[in-house]
Amino acid sequence: MNTTKKTDFATGPVWKCIVAQAIPLTIAQVVHLLYNVVDRIYLGHMDGEDGLALTGVGLAFPIITLIMAFTALFGMGGVPLFSIERGAGNTQKASRILGNSFFLLLVTSLILTVLGFAFCRPLLFAFGAGEESYVYAKAYLDIYLFGTPFSMLATGLNGYINAQGFPKAGMASVIIGALVNLLLDPLFIFGLDMGVAGAALATVISQVISAVWVLLFLFGKKVPIPITRADIHPDKTIVGAIAKLGTSNFIMNGTTFLVQVTCNKTLQLYGGDLYVGIMTVVNSVREICMLPVSGLMSGAQPVVSFNYGAKRYERARAGIRFNTAVGAVYTLIAWGLILLFPHFWFGIFSDDAAMIESGVELLKLYFFGFVFMALQFAGQSTFQSLGDAKHAIFFSLLRKAIIVVPLTMILPALGFGVKGVFLAEPISNILGGMACYITMRLTAYRKLSHDKVL
Fold first, then answer.
1. What is the pLDDT of residues 70-85, one digit of tens each?
2. Which of 284, 310, 364, 432 could form a disulfide with 87 if both were Cys (CB 3.0 to 4.6 A apart)?
3. Ramachandran category for residue 2: left, alpha or beta (phi over 0 → left; psi -120 to 50 → alpha)
4. In angstroms, rounded to a whole number, what is the distance separating the alpha carbons of residues 312 and 323?
5. DSSP track, 363-380
């Protein structure tokens, strides 16, 4: 595989530039998902655990999501700025953005590791753990937290490889680690009888390998703009710009954290550990279904940002239109597959009869209106690509913090019970997705049409 072939975002059909980025990125995200879902698949089929191992890992999700929120804050927050400066020919400033992002990710990861160990027990009980499920959640986190620096560096810096036109190299960094995880999981979980702890250990080892790959590539000579020692120090202006734009990514992940905590607590109140386990499965299926559209948007972001920075506005508009059309078609198909084959999707993660009996209908309810997520992604991706932090932050908050969280608490109390928790998601998809997309078309997209095309 030639991982050093570079893509030129300024020439050729825009859709081809996006696809050239999106295909390897989607493959990388599919493989990256193995870091998480393969653990759940194995744990969901462990003998004699009655779904508690899967529930325990589900209770660890909020902490993992919070770590990823900080990764997005300082990693994804810098990539669009980096791409804009690279498109404008400001190589020196782009290099400083990369160096500052590396510094922020490293320091934050060390702080989060210490805090995670210090407050693990109270956090897990605050997130909805019971005495039995806590044992499994703690066994997982006790090992997983050691991999925090490697996870944050690998994920947060990989975008800078893709942003410089090396999507195959970015894909390779993920595939290498995920394949290691895939091979080690059954060995540690079943072969060495380590159970939940084995799943965590396999994940940490794979994260270390991915981080080493990313760092060797970005510190090397293959990329036009590598990480240099001179740029690894905080610059107040750059740190502020990264944090400002990255706040939308942080809120997207942070509100996911808030939703997970609220769901776990509410499901414990109205249903118990069984329904926390069901939500773990439903979220896992959602992650699988989100991969292609997420890969598409990730592939489009550097293309749109680059052309915006180069003042090629019609190319940026073409990228936005392509994102919307392809995303809508895909999410409509995915929704149909969930409705037609719910037992298949649920069965991937669990063979527990009680979970399947109660979970299949909840899975279909949760995915109602999934097509509207394409509108949310298209709008959110555009705001981020153009550096519009204000709108990106607002719509990150709207869908989850303003719509999902209140509905998750209100609907069960109104008589919907556990169904109310699963119903909150489709309502937010419809309302939040439409609001985000319509606003994007009336603001950012329209502004591009008014600017002079070079």
1. 888 887 777 878 877 7
2. 310
3. beta
4. 17
5. HHHHTTTTTHHHHHHHHH
Q: 232 is in which domain, residue-wise? A: 14-449
Q: Is residue 117 part of a domain?
A: yes
pTM for this model (two decimals): 0.63
Task: Give me the torsion for CA of 414, 418, 420, 424, rounded to 10°.
Answer: 150
User: Would you state the structure tokens that stand for residue 191, as one six-digit string?
Assistant: 């072969």
* Other Cβ atoms closer than 10 A to 131: 7
429's tokens: 């998809």
Residue corresponding to tokens 């940002």: 305
The CA–CA distances, whole Å, from 44 to 30, 178, 262, 277, 362 equal 20, 19, 23, 9, 18
For the purposes of burial, counting CB atoms within 10 Å of the CB of 316, is it exposed (0-12), middle (13-18) or buried (19 or more)? buried
Question: Which residue do the tokens 């810096």 mark?
Answer: 157
Q: Give per-residue pLDDT as tens, 389-435.
A: 778 778 878 887 888 889 999 999 998 988 999 999 899 989 988 99
Write b or e for each residue in 236-254: b if 16 or more Cβ atoms lie within 10 A of its Cβ, otherwise e. eebbebbbbbbbbbbbbbb
268 within a domain of the structure (yes/no): yes
The answer to the question of residue 291 being in a domain is: yes
How far apart are alpha carbons 249 and 75 in whole angstroms? 9
User: Distance between CA 216 and CA 207 in Å, rounded?
Assistant: 14
> 1 lies in a domain?
no
